[in-house]
From TrEMBL:
Keywords: Cytoplasm, Phosphoprotein, Repeat, TPR repeat. It comes from Pitta sordida. SUPFAM superfamilies: TPR-like. This is AH receptor-interacting protein. PANTHER family: AH RECEPTOR-INTERACTING PROTEIN (PTHR11242:SF3), ARYL HYDROCARBON RECEPTOR INTERACTING PROTEIN RELATED (PTHR11242).
Length: 239
């Protein structure tokens, strides 16, 4: 055993990885000693204590599983830039296949990984530059697929945020208007849903049957809600 002075920072990174986060989350680009002085707390009491009072450490390593050669897939954070670009189409395909199988949360996780790869590369480019725009155009369809998964998982406010961010950049994106319209309808933002569906029709009139179906569904839900409200309020006033 020996004193491992930098282990608290290493452990924090490993815990971030286990939680599906960036292992360097919250760290600045400076040396490890500076990191330790910069952070009053690492977010874990046991690591804070170890950082203040370094102790001899003994590591027990347990083999959880053995993977056949060629079967291991790197996490996006561990890939080089070139590996990220090569991995994105494969991750996208895996997400599509999971979605076809009805494994929607798993598909969303794949789309998220692909988006994370491209976002990481995009951060290294000047916003608005040709390379930045090219990466953004690759991110957009993945983000729309991710939103489709979130619609089915009934996580509507996340859909609203992502679709709005797309439409702030691409005002003619029909799919973003349509998915945002569905999310607005689901959370009873009636005027906003109607406005988004109207925009869909203006951009692509061929989608009228689909939009009409969504509007009929919204109207039916509104009638049901009005009927329930009348019964509820009648009971209140009759007491």
């Amino acid at each position: 055993p020996q004193h491992v002075v930098l282990y608290p920072l290493v452990s924090k990174s490993l815990r971030n990885i286990a939680a599906g986060k960036d292992p360097l989350e919250g760290q600045r680009h400076c040396c490890s000693i500076a990191q330790m002085h910069e952070h009053y707390s690492l977010g874990y009491p046991d690591l804070d204590e170890l950082q203040k009072n370094p102790q001899p450490l003994i590591f027990d390593i347990e083999v959880l599983k053995v993977e056949p050669p060629g079967s291991y897939q790197q996490d996006p954070w561990a890939m080089t830039d070139e590996e990220k670009l090569q991995a994105v189409p494969l991750i996208h395909q895996e997400g599509n296949e999971l979605y076809r199988q009805g494994k929607v949360p798993e598909a969303a996780a794949k789309y998220y990984d692909a988006i994370a790869c491209l976002k990481n590369l995009q951060m290294k480019e000047q916003p608005g530059s040709p390379d930045w725009i090219e990466l953004d155009q690759k991110i957009t369809p993945l983000l729309l697929n991710y939103c489709q998964c979130k619609l089915q998982c009934e996580e509507y406010y996340e859909v609203l945020d992502h679709c709005s961010s797309i439409l702030n950049k691409y005002e003619d994106n029909v799919k973003a208007y349509f998915k945002r319209g569905k999310a607005h309808a689901a959370v009873w933002n009636v005027a906003e849903a109607q406005a988004d569906f109207a925009k869909v029709l203006a951009l692509d009139p061929s989608l009228r049957p689909v939009v009409s179906r969504e509007l009929r569904s919204l109207e039916a839900r509104l009638r049901e809600k009005d009927a329930e409200d009348k019964i509820r309020f009648k009971g209140i006033f009759s007491q």
